[in-house]
Design a protein that fits this description.
Helices cover 75% and strands 0% of the residues. By secondary structure, the protein is mainly alpha-helical. The relative contact order is 0.04.
């Protein structure tokens, strides 16, 4: 039992060393590329933070939440369409980028025929 734990630990350590020996993509990029990557990650975090903030606002200050929702209700439909188009464009372009740069899955190994390992 201890031998298997030691061998698994050693295997994990070798894999970790190989992984850490590779340069991180963000470190290999320039300052501008890192800034653009950070800006691309920002909308998701803002949307999630805003949703959580609305949840807590509804729990803590229901009157303020009601006023905010009433303000959103008065927002013209055209503006909602514009917001939806911007968000769809952002996340659609992001998904398209990931689809273009996705690595194809490797082909599974062909199954061996029974009796093929017997000497001919």
């Amino acid at each position: 039992m201890p031998d298997t734990i030691l061998s698994k630990t050693a295997t994990f350590a070798r894999r970790l060393r190989r992984l850490l020996a590779q340069p991180a993509p963000s470190l290999a990029q320039g300052r501008y590329d890192r800034l653009i990557d950070a800006a691309n990650r920002l909308p998701r975090r803002v949307l999630v933070s805003g949703t959580v903030a609305l949840l807590f606002l509804a729990l803590i200050r229901p009157d303020l939440f009601d006023r905010g929702m009433a303000s959103l209700d008065r927002m013209p439909d055209e503006l909602w369409w514009l917001v939806g188009a911007i968000l769809a464009g952002h996340f659609g372009a992001r998904e398209a980028h990931h689809m273009r740069h996705r690595t194809p899955p490797s082909a599974p190994a062909a199954p061996e025929k029974p009796g093929s390992d017997s000497p001919a």
